[in-house]
Amino acid sequence: MFLTRFQINPARRGARRLLSSPQVLHAAVRAGFAAPEDHERDGARTLWRLDSPTPTTVHLYIVSPGRPDLTHLVEQAGWPTTETWVTRDYGPLLDGLRPGQEWAFRLTANPSHSGRKTADAKETQRFGYLREEEQVGWLTGRATRLGFTVATQQDGRPNVRLHRRQTYSFKRGLGTVTLTTATYDGVLRVGDADAFRRSLTGGIGHAKAYGCGLLTLAPAG
Questions:
Q1: Distance CA 193, CA 207 (A)
Q2: Is the pLDDT of residue 119 over 80?
Q3: Number of Cβ within a 10 Å radius of residue 34
Q4: Is the predicted pLDDT of residue 22 greater than 90, yes or no?
Q5: What is the pTM assigned to this prediction?
Q6: d(C-alpha 183, C-alpha 205), whole Å
Q7: Is 154 a residue whose pLDDT tops 80?
Q8: Within 13 Å, how many C-alpha atoms sit on residue 195's CB side?
Q9: How far apart are CA 219 and CA 214, in angstroms?
Q10: ∠ CA 2-203-184 to the nearest 5 degrees?
Q11: Hey, what's the torsion of the CAs at 120, 125, 131, 135, to 10 degrees?
Q12: How far apart are the C-alpha atoms of 68 and 58, rounded to whole Å?
């Protein structure tokens, strides 16, 4: 597995097009892998996420089974004369995970549930959780089977902060996709290391093709 960071130049026309649609950006990420097995394998898939550490900086993070070639993104939406992309081997971090370790984490996810729109509706559909307490509960409620627990603060509440909470729509073919997303920053404790590795390499929740599900780690404290 590999972890890649690519800096987008938001002033470029190509960048604005990519940033306007997760469908378009997903296709651009997919185009970075010549071999299908480098994009998706059993138990591992390509995940991506946009982060904006400052109002004028946009980073594209990618975790993938194979090493990507993002030359096309540099040409369309990057900094061709100063920046390309940085790819690191993700294996040492995955191999070093142990129960009891604490990590700071970031996750952009699609907190949602399935249900029927009306009592007599035949088909179920997916609804996004909109309230902050629901979105926190969505993560903490499934954390154990994902291989971790969210650490608690001194007041007993989960050590997690939500931002970039939004519901937005974009075109996919002739239809429209509507997504509710939230970005979680917090501290977690590893429980089941194997299950946690699967969460890091396979993603968390739905809408993984559209920039959701990638959980990244940093040293806690």
A1: 24
A2: no
A3: 10
A4: yes
A5: 0.93
A6: 13
A7: yes
A8: 13
A9: 17
A10: 105
A11: 140
A12: 19
User: Taking the C-alpha atoms of 105, 95, 197 and 216 in order, what is their torsion angle to the nearest 10 degrees?
Assistant: 20
The amino acid that residue 69 corresponds to is D
Distance CA 160, CA 164 (A): 13
Tokens of 66: 């194979």
Q: Where do we find the tokens 């979680």?
A: 184
Tell the residue number behind the tokens 């979105």, with chain if given.
Answer: 135
* DSSP class of 15: H
Residue with the larger pLDDT of the pair 86 and 120:
86
Tokens of 192: 């089941």
160: β partners: 186
Nearest Cα neighbor of 143 from 159, 130, 124 is: 159
Q: Indicate the pLDDT class of residue 19, thresholds 50, 70 and 90.
A: very high
Q: Structure tokens of 65?
A: 């089974």
